[in-house]
Records
---
Amino acid sequence: MNALNTAAHGDSAPLRFRSLGGWVERPGDLQPALKGHEHADVIVIGAGFAGLSTALELKALGADVIVLEQEFAGFGASGRNAGYLLGSMGIECEVFVNRVGVEQARQFVRFYDEAVNYVEGRLTTLGIDCDYTPSGVIRAAVHPGQEKRLRKNMELGQTLGSVTRFVDRAQMRARGIPPAFLFGTEQRGGTLNPGKYVSGLRRAAIEAGVKLYERTPLLSFSEGQVITCKTAHGRASAPAMVLATNAYTPQLGVLRNKVAAIRVSAIETQPLSTEQLAALGWKGREGIITPHYTMESHRLTAHGTLVLTVKQLGYAYGSKTPNIPDHGAYAALAQVLRERFPALQGLGIQHCWSGYVSGAYDFLPVVGAMGAKQNIFYTTGCSGHGLATQSLMGSLFAGQINGKAPELLAALQHRTPSMLPEPFQWCAIQSAFAAAKLLDAWTDRKVRKDNAMKD
Ligand SMILES: Cc1cc2nc3c(=O)[nH]c(=O)nc-3n(C[C@H](O)[C@H](O)[C@H](O)COP(=O)(O)OP(=O)(O)OC[C@H]3O[C@@H](n4cnc5c(N)ncnc54)[C@H](O)[C@@H]3O)c2cc1C
């Protein structure tokens, strides 16, 4: 944990960078690294929502499962996200329809929405207490000019089967939602503590008898009827493997031309005082996201802090994933905190962190099987909305490996566009980020101007 130069966010208290994110610590019962040669029915690489859910579902079907995790379960995005359990409202329906047509877009909407039910069910079945608040999530405008885009996405979503409703200004105020958020579209779901969720999955997997090897990066693997995975001190082999390495997948030399690793950042405030919480209203604690091109997310936590994420994304050349601070993103989020919550002036920022998600050019999930024997399964590319979907993938993969071929998994198959080689990819992604930033800055300037006129 490092103290950052505070000049960047204009706050007087030191802003701490947490290299593991704001929700998890290295577990006290770190599982041993793989040594020697182990055999199993399935090897899962990566212990986030996808890897742990897959291992648990396979174990329930009686399979012998090995999980190899380079650090510890929850080290990746699963331990660093904002904790929104959100379905199809989080996606840009228009992009999906343009890419795969109405019929298949309906299946993607179903995939995102069923995933919310799946996670809610798993929290109960596995007895995971992760402060889940089924408050609903609102995609809320900060300027009237965002209404057209909001409504358009909602209406298209509804034709695809997404259950979303419009919340007008009067309803927003009646519910005590902070006044910066004018009106919005709402969907069921809510917020949870992702650290507690992923740690709960980890505990359940260990108790179920999944062989979890932590501090065990996969170094290489061989394809064939039997797949052999090489690690620093051992080998594991199995007739099937699941790559649940998400944004880290391109570094394995896999899917490099299909997904890019995108850095997403977060800040967490000091706990709000009882008076600040009361003044804020926001009794329903709805998770809020905005319809900016690079969205903002705003939520209260069960421990009384505010967590804000995104606003500015990052991309490191070659889809690298350095675990380093992103000062520019934290400064942008600190400014957003001051502007959206003027009543909380002086509220300190406790710490900040970043993590990596993966994205394809068409923003669609990248799910499938590869290898000469089609026995290497992968799931990546859920952009910034993988809490629910990557969990559901565990159930779909377990069905597939068990010979059941779930129809929802088949419905997700489509052609992912190829990415550009470097340095063109770096240029293309930076240009897309810059364009989104310009459009969002224009909206935010209009918000400031309107507010100045009110004062
Ligand atoms: C700041 C932030 C906010 C977000 N907010 C939300 C949100 O509110 N809602 C939402 O739905 N989504 C959100 N997301 C996205 C969500 O967190 C991800 O989509 C999801 O966690 C992906 O889960 P996963 O299991 O596929 O990948 P990960 O959690 O990234 O797991 C991959 C694992 O693979 C391991 N690994 C990598 N390489 C190797 C190797 N060679 N050998 C062994 N192990 C390896 C990694 O250490 C890691 O633990 C957010 C992401 C970030 C970063």
---
Amino acid sequence: MQTLRNTELDALQAAWPQHMQRAIQLAASVFSAAPNPRVGCVIVGGNAEAGDSVLGEGWHQGAGLPHAEPVAIANAIRLAAGSTAFVTLEPCCHTGRTGPCSSALIEAGVSRVVIASKDPNPKVSGGGIAALEAAGVEVFFLQDFEDGARRLNRGFFSRLERRRPFVRCKLAMSLDGRTALANGESKWITGAEARSDVQRLRAECDAIVTGIETVLADDPAMTLRQAELGLNAQQLVWNELRLSNPPLRVVLDSRGRLSETAKIVTEPGRCIAYRLDGANSSVEASSPIAVRLAPNSGESVSRVSLLSVLESLAELDECNEVLVEAGATLSGSFIEAGLVDELIVYIAPKLLGSDGRPLLGMSGLNELSDAIEFKVESLEQVGADIKVTLRPR
Ligand SMILES: NC(=O)c1ccc[n+]([C@@H]2O[C@H](COP(=O)([O-])OP(=O)(O)OC[C@H]3O[C@@H](n4cnc5c(N)ncnc54)[C@H](OP(=O)(O)O)[C@@H]3O)[C@@H](O)[C@H]2O)c1
């Protein structure tokens, strides 16, 4: 396999970045393909020079459905021998729910395969590249697209490389950093557009994690509401699989206080409650609550270990991405434990005053040097509110 940077491409390869960019765009047609990665593929005639025509395009819509490469091959108007396939992820070489994509590309007579990321799945991990090369197909790795390709599948990479999902934590606050009035009233700080944006965050995740206090205070449903996603007819078809398999709802409930009648339990879809191992763990067999036991986090207050919960969601449910939608206590614990990979804060242009509740329950920071620092990734206006996307430094 030859690794190339964009600046190293020759005149015949000048259109390659444009084709790979298109493949990334195709992969992003679905919110999620979990537990599989989102993958896009563009097949171009000949050496994929500028002017060479695109023969076929495809992307993977989710587990059990064909992978991006066979979709692009099936969509191709004709498949000239000597064509080039641009794939955002190394083609697979194993037979899972579908056949190996490396074989499909070889049989289709593709001469060149250009990839933007290598597959971390131990069943592939270079095997797809080796199979293609063994069949005489040239393989190129376009290194400048690796970040974009990994970003598409940051949850998939996190689950396979770190054995835990990518964690996004979402919070909403007033301009003065308050999440509710002193009496707890908080509906709604942000506007309808921000709330519909949160629906998109839910559509991208495989599990929504909340704390028992939020459930007791608000009785939220934590469901995916299709009508608020603002999708057109085509996007609805593409995302059919995700919409019919909404994210798992997870309640962290160390002491077993979750009621069987809570909306988070009774709404259609799966709900799992994590309780502290050894705590009030007797659950009637007929209970609609699926209980899992987790070890103690080992801190002064006995609570379930967040790392164990994440590892269990990755292992037992193949969760790639988790969205934490909790109050100040649990969100603060996730941040303090260094388990938040992305923080999204919606800021409403309102002042709730100093009696209001703070954004995060974190204490014990005495020196400025102890401050937990973030880097702003993006800033955008969503309706009347501001959305800030941050990464831990
Ligand atoms: N502004 C926002 O974006 C937003 C979002 C969601 C909720 N809220 C508001 O937040 C309020 C509730 O906030 P809250 O801080 O009281 O509750 P919370 O963060 O939702 O839940 C906290 C509870 O989670 C449980 N938990 C289990 N394991 C934990 C761990 N390792 N670390 C921390 N907590 C753990 C604990 O109860 P056990 O020890 O019993 O397990 C803890 O008391 C509600 O009024 C809701 O409206 C605001």
